[in-house]
Specification:
By secondary structure, this protein is an alpha+beta fold. It contains 3 helices and 6 strands, in the order βββααββαβ. Helix 1 packs across helix 2.
């Protein structure tokens, strides 16, 4: 299940990406969806599976979080970096640390 944050007219929400568009989950804020945990995931899966919600093409797919703040990452705990560096083995005694500042988080196809 692939979740997206979308805009449709004046509405912004969280949806599930399906073959023919997006199915709205009923959640408007990603943090609310995350805090709801398994309940939100089960509800989203049910909305897709029961076919009651009609998929639509959103006006835009947005950045996953509207105001992420600053995020710091440790590269040796990041699966893709471990795989790129040799299949998960520890290649250095020092972790690779990097940041994503809030102005660098954008939606697909966005330029700013």
């Amino acid at each position: 299940m692939r979740l997206v944050r979308f805009a449709l007219g004046t509405e912004v929400g969280i949806g599930v990406k399906v073959d023919d568009g997006v199915v709205a989950t009923g959640y408007g804020d990603p943090r609310t969806f995350i805090r709801a945990g398994g309940t939100a995931v089960a509800s989203a899966r049910a909305r897709v599976a029961d076919g009651a919600a009609t998929p639509f093409e959103p006006d835009a797919v947005l950045a996953p979080l509207p105001d992420p703040g600053q995020m710091l990452f440790c590269g040796l705990t990041h699966r893709a970096l471990r795989d790129d560096l040799g299949g998960g083995e520890r290649l250095t005694d020092h972790p690779y640390v990097y940041a994503k500042l809030q102005h660098t988080i954008i939606g697909p196809g966005s330029r700013s």
